[in-house]
Amino acid sequence: xxxxxxxxxxxxxxxxxxxxxxxxxxxxxxxxxxxxxxxxxxxxxxxxxxxxxxxxxxxxxxxxxxxxxxxxxxxxxxxxxxxxxxxxxxxxxxxxxxxxxxxxxxxxxxxxxxxxxxxxxxxxxxxxxxxxxxxxxxxxxxxxxxxxxxxxxxxxxxxxxxxxxxxxxxxxxxxxxxxxxxxxxxxxxxxxxxxxxxxxxxxxxxxxxxxxxxxxxxxxxxxxxxxxxxxxxxxxxxxxxxxxxxxxxxxxxxxxxxxxxxxxxxxxxxxxxxxxxxxxxxxxxxxxxxxxxxxxxxxxxxxxxxxxxxxxxxxxxxxxxxxxxxxxxxxxxxxxxxxxxxxx
Length: 344
What we know:
CATH class of the largest domain: Alpha Beta
Largest sheet: 6 strands, antiparallel
Structural class: alpha+beta
Shape: globular
Number of strands: 19
Oligomer: single chain
CATH architecture of the largest domain: 2-Layer Sandwich
Number of helices: 8
Helix content: 10-25%
Number of domains: 2
Distance between the termini: 42 Å
CATH superfamily of the largest domain: DNA ligase/mRNA capping enzyme
């Protein structure tokens, strides 16, 4: 491609905090329940990439076709791919699209077409790099770009934005089908790969974790619990807890997949402990696996380097790279709660 921002470009990331930041320097946007996506178009060439840089184009042919139908033939958009289903956003329907069979993908694309929710413009229709501009200017140019190009029939939508804290709180309540709120600094440029100009406020505490191992159930030859890990700043994977709230069907489905990964290095830092008074010898033995799978879990408390209770399995995250699952997810959330109110 001849675009100034090309595939492989790392999207701007967010710090996870517990409260909405307040002040005239902030813009608020809904947090959608989907896959982060950078969309590149240069003439007839269209490329969709996940947050981790993985190609998404083949899984969402209807989105690629919609981008190809726009009037502008050159641009780079930062957006979210989501699937509307039954009046809400369905992450389960989205996960089904990551399928190896092209026929299955085509069938689902026709039955449950995805929508591209666009919230930033990195390269305009003239091929100009906008990433050095502050958000307030990029948003103005995005709105002009959307007015000239977007149409509801395309399945490409301008994601709303506001500077009104009351509107942000309404989004945070979840009554509008949102998963939380993104707060972005209006005066900052697009900081590729950094967490310095954007904050994420979720409606519930969740974390994306690497599966570094598993334990078998006390009965049957199925997985009983997934052992969770997070990377520190030195790239060391530490065991931080477990989740055992998988359904019976999910246990049967995931057991052969995990068994194929057995023999990997597992955790390179803190590792799971041994037997306890609540476990049998078999259930305490754990199997290290290649750290390639990512799972999102819900949790109540994280202290002293681990989840204090068992976490709740929420979903698999094939769109996330294991290296993106870092201790900073939970450290940043805790730090936000300790900040003096005057500093927020």
